[in-house]
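quick one, 139 residues, struct below
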Amino acid sequence: MTKIINSIVAITYDKDKEYHFLILKKKGTWVGWQFVQGEREDEDWKNAVKREVKEETGLECEDVIKIDVGADYWFKWEGELIHKFLHYYLAKVDKNATVKLSEEHSDYKWVDFETAHKELKFNKEQFKKAFELLKEVNR
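---
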């Protein structure tokens, strides 16, 4: 039997003259750079984004925007077949606030689009689309 998981990906950003993106270095089953990501619990999607951002970074979201970008993939975990769906959100945070990493991550950095795109282990195409949408929204 297949287990279905719905997760959020919060593309955390701030903007002064330029956009800055907060990427996190994941540790555990794989190591690499990513955005905040987690499963939706008994809550609506936007509250899931706010909770995951707070849990993984200690930051409060100033604004959360659902974007029409998604992805899904299959994998096996402990012998069980999993179909995971990713729902993408833009999450504006304050880059001057103190980041407090959860135990899921070993490091973080604020970077520009090009650096984030290069460093991300997964979801590069979705990030590129999200960045285009972000620029449209904030004209």
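The domain at 2-137 is CATH 3.90.79.10 (Nucleoside Triphosphate Pyrophosphohydrolase).
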